[in-house]
Amino acid sequence: MNQAEHVPGARAVKVSPKQLHGLSVISLTPFTDTGEVDVASFRRLLDFYLAAGVHGITLLGIMGEVSKLTEADRDTVIETAVSHVAGRVPVTVGCSAPGTHQTLAFVRRAQAAGADAIMVAPPNNTRNLDLVLDHYRAVSEVSELPLVVQDEPTTTGVVLPPAFFGRVVQQVPTARYVKVEEAPTLMKVSAIREAAQDKLGLFGGLGGMYFYEELARGAVGIMTGFAFPEVLVQVYERYQAGDAEGARACFYRYLPLIRFEAQLGVTGVAIRKEIFRMRGVIASAHVRQPAPRIDERTLAELTDLVGFLGL
Fold first, then answer.
1. Which runs of E-coded beta strand occur in the chain?
2. Of 92, 101, 139, 285, which sits 20 to 30 A from 109 (CA to CA)?
3. What is its EC number (predicted)?
4. Does the global pTM surpass 0.85?
């Protein structure tokens, strides 16, 4: 499938910059074969996301290879996206860093560049939740942008229990959303909703593997970089239109590809980049090192699965 409109129901949705919902796609960062940021491919990718009907774009997430970007690269990504998207959907910028001072610098730069929201994970391996809460309070003090708290213990080493989000609601005025990436996500979505008294909008993640069930639990959307975003748009819009059965049928049809793409052992980003290259959206599937490469058998399996699903 080379065009978003080949999946019935995919369409562009214009929303208020202050309201995050639906699919806020985690954008890849395209590189040239020599590892430089490929701005031309990035603009094509942004156009592709918008044509697929995404409800928002999230930059500098794990799937954007944020840990391998220089500060100049970060600025290029943010400035290119904000200017190219031009307010058509909200742009959320990842501002996570090991320390609070560094995080605040990233937040200020994102705000100055025109971001609509920011996403911040806890500082790595900070197990003292009082310190984590201090971190988020500091973020709230330097920017009025809506804050997405990224609950991602696999990368950060920080487990945020549901009760923590009750404290967030009380003490972090700009906190509006949570991206839940701790499995089992479904129970945690329900537990956070209860602890935060439904005052935080919840987004799923984990490649989209539980998207339908997360919606059924009250999530407002998902942040993921799945390489066929028009599928997730259709799932969300059918669900919001009251067609839960249609949403579930669409989701379960494409779940094998979602599952295949989420293989952490060969890095989901490498598979995603290869799919976007196959779809003619980006020029190169280059992933900055260190990163494992996809072997020929995995590529053959991917091609077979995409063909089997009629994509």
1. 22-26, 56-59, 91-94, 117-120, 147-151, 175-180, 201-204, 221-222
2. 285
3. 4.3.3.7
4. yes
